[in-house]
Amino acid sequence: MTHSEFRFAHHPEDVKKYNTQELRDHFLIPEIFKKNEISLTYSMYDRFIAGGAFPVDKALKLEAFDDLKSENFLDRRELGIINVGGAGKVSVDGEVYEIGHKEALYVGRGNKEVIFEKSGSEQPYFYLNSAPAHHPYPTKKVGKEDAEVIELGDAKYANKRILNKLIVNSILETCQLQMGMTELVEGNVWNTMPPHTHTRRMEVYFYFDLEEGQTISHFMGQPDETRHIFMKNHQAVISPEWSIHAGAGTSNYTFIWGMAGENLDYGDMDKVTPDELK
After folding, report:
1. First and final CA of the chain: distance in angstroms?
2. What is the pLDDT of residues 162-207, one digit of tens each?
3. CB contact at 8 A, 180 and 192
4. Among 233, 261, 244, 229, residue whose Cα is nearest residue 127
């Protein structure tokens, strides 16, 4: 079963007037994983889709939904998958890929059938991102050993972290989808600090590996007009192209960033220094 939700885009001048609940209603994706469902949120920011496949005791087939107006989900789209749970498998037009913990799979435009399943007793959690695609590129698995790994930050500023580029153009070809995973080192809490915007791309953050009972404050908005959303484990948040996207947790955690837009250059950022934030 594939369930979808639709979200409009928002002008930054309007967002300044939103209260806490309005911010959460428009930008927070509170429940990524639902038992035996594929749950998707379709955003008008670059027509990006984020969600999860949670096959507990049956296989799940990715299906097109009404807003796509297509026979198959990938008729005009590409798909990125990162498994944040136990080992699972993904079948793409009959070819089976074993996807372990924190491993990724890119699925190109034009594939007809994508099926998610458990591999054994452990429970996989398949996090999904999708963007429109103009060209079919080959399906490819990306293990952690294939990732482009970068160490960032400094314990002095509580932002020491390890960035894993997984579905990016330096590893495989995509149309516009880019995905990676950033792991905060124990004792560090800040991500994406110093912050930035990039009007060429929107972004979605998915937070996981957060200790029970802890929380993350995700910061968004224009640099001189910031807002925050408190988040729990296994939740995601939509970040418009005009918005910063940074967060701080009450413990360390991991997050997946997914991007779409007209630019595949990871380093294309309009940087903001911390003392410029308001």
Report:
1. 43
2. 999 999 999 999 999 999 999 999 999 999 988 999 999 999 999 9
3. no
4. 233
Strands of the sheet with 95-99, listed across from one edge: 60-61, 114-118, 88-92, 95-99
For the whole model, what pTM was predicted? 0.96
153 dihedral zone (left: phi>0; alpha: psi -120 to 50; beta): left
Annotation-wise, does 203 bind a ligand? yes
**Residue in this structure with the two tokens 């701080």, named with its chain if needed:** 248
- Determine if residue 186 is labeled as part of a ligand binding site: no
Confirm or reject CATH 2.60.120.10 for domain 2-276, answering yes or no: yes
203, amino acid identity: E
Tokens standing for 162?
């390890």
The Cα-based distances of 218 to 91, 98, 166 in angstroms read 34, 32, 23
198 is in an annotated binding site: yes
**Domain coordinates in residue numbering, the chain:** 2-276
Spatial separation of the C-alpha atoms in residues 129 and 111, rounded to whole Å? 16
In three-state secondary structure terms, 187 is: coil
Interacting residues of 76 by C-beta distance below 8 A, sequence separation 6+: 68, 70, 109, 132, 133
Which tokens is 143 given? 């293990």
